[in-house]
Design brief:
Domain Major facilitator superfamily (MFS) profile: 10-394
Largest sheet: none
Membrane topology: Multi-pass membrane protein
Order of helices and strands: HHHHHHHHHHHHHHHHHHH
Number of domains: 1
Keywords: Cell membrane, Membrane, Transmembrane, Transmembrane helix, Transport
Subcellular location: Cell membrane
Helix content: over 70%
Transmembrane segments: 12-36, 42-68, 80-104, 165-184, 213-229, 249-268, 275-298, 304-325, 337-356, 368-389
Number of strands: 0
Number of helices: 19
Distance between the termini: 15 Å
Structural class: mainly alpha
């Protein structure tokens, strides 16, 4: 409770809203690939493409979402995104055409790519420097509490074969919208951009990012890491669905993943504070690659859970420090732009499911060792890329130091 008292009321609202919004999201999206293949009868590669389209939109949506956040304010962008999200999930519930699902998941990605950088920039803005690690970790924990509960609810209401969960998710996002409207009317957030001349033009934004080699190569490294992690939402469930009770096993793996995140997040963050965020991200990429290799190597259920544990530890090390990394290297008046431009890592989420689906389709579900070994190899290349980022940071004297 002492930690909660340190939070700005708007920060607390965003963290609580994140908990319930992600809970609703995890009732639906993780089951979408299975729903499309089993109910709509689409191929594995097409299902992967539909899953990936939201990330393709996020490539540019994150940049523009972050830009608009800095230019016009986080409040407006967040409210518009949530309202649009409400109608997107109503669309999911009523869609019949496969191509409609393409459009809806593209809009889903657009809403996420606008809302996420705005909310993170706002958290950074209203939070004192000494509390930022706490706030970003609470946000990450909220995401994973939602991920722990959401799939169980989704499994219970048959999210892989019905549309009920989409209506529920739509309702949750609408409530989140109402809550933010109330909070923003009660607490006025002052702009921190300073003089109007400091407002970022689109041309200047592109120029700044284009010259920031630390940021550019960090994005490349994260893309490779995300390619590996994205298999959890597409290739792994499709692979497991071929086996008896595979859908149920995948649901338990999602819950295990979320619970593991909650259990290991605090000790990992405590250990991680003695090292740089960069080191944590690098080790995380290595662990994600090792976890993927385990899915190819083992078929026994206990060992699949071991592989998921390794992959999850990698997830925590990789993603929990990314916001800290970006918050440190971003100029104060361009936080939204930098957070949003990390959306370019969605290249990994876009091509990862598609690559995995193609491998399943052409190499065969039984050839899982080769499939997951290749995916692990691709992911692991991110490690030396971040080694190079570390060299650039030393050369430019950009260093990250955070403490709990």
């Amino acid at each position: 409770m002492e930690h909660i008292k340190k939070l700005h009321p708007v920060s607390a609202t965003i963290i609580i809203g994140t908990l319930f919004a992600r809970m609703a999201m995890f009732m639906t999206i993780p089951f979408l690939a299975i729903y499309l293949t089993s109910v709509k009868g689409v191929s594995a590669s097409l299902a992967g493409a539909i899953i990936g389209i939201s990330s393709i939109v996020g490539l540019f949506g994150g940049f523009f979402g972050g830009y608009f956040s800095d230019r016009y304010g986080q409040e407006k962008v967040m409210k518009i995104s949530l309202l649009m999200w409400t109608f997107v999930f109503i669309g999911f519930a009523t869609a019949e055409s496969v191509w409609t699902f393409f459009l809806l998941n593209a809009l889903n990605g657009l809403c996420r790519s606008f809302f996420e950088p705005s909310s993170r920039a706002l958290l950074s803005q209203v939070t004192k420097q000494e509390n930022k690690l706490l706030v970003f970790n609470l946000r990450y924990a909220a995401i994973n509490v939602g991920a722990a509960i959401g799939p169980l609810v989704g499994l219970k209401i048959g999210a892989s074969s019905s549309t009920t969960a989409f209506f529920i998710t739509s309702f949750v996002y609408f409530l989140y919208f109402i809550l933010l409207v109330v909070m923003f009317s009660k607490y006025t957030i002052e702009q921190t951009h300073g003089d109007i001349s400091e407002h970022v033009t689109l041309r200047r934004a592109v120029g700044v990012l284009g010259k920031d080699r630390v940021f550019l190569f960090a994005v490349i490294g994260m893309i490779l890491g995300v390619i590996g992690y994205s298999q959890f939402n597409s290739t792994i469930p499709q692979y497991l669905s071929q086996y008896k009770d595979g859908v149920q096993l995948f649901s338990y793996l999602i819950v295990f993943n979320a619970i593991t995140v909650l259990v290991v997040q605090y000790p990992v963050s405590r250990i991680g504070k003695h090292y740089s965020a960069l080191t944590s991200i690098m080790l995380g990429i290595g662990a994600v690659a090792l976890g993927l290799f385990g899915f190819g190597l083992f078929t026994a259920v206990p060992m699949l859970f071991v592989s998921m544990f390794v992959l999850t530890v990698g997830e925590v090390m990789m993603f929990s420090m990314t916001d800290i990394f970006i918050d440190q290297i971003a100029p104060k008046h361009m936080k939204g732009l930098y957070f949003g431009s990390m959306g370019f890592t969605a290249i990994g989420n876009a091509i990862g499911p598609w690559i995995g689906g193609l491998m399943l389709e052409h190499l065969g579900y039984g050839n899982h060792f080769l499939i997951f070994s290749l995916l692990a190899l691709c992911t692991s290349i991110g490690f030396p890329v971040f080694l190079y980022v570390g060299g650039l940071m030393k050369a430019t004297k950009r260093h990250i130091e955070y403490s709990l």
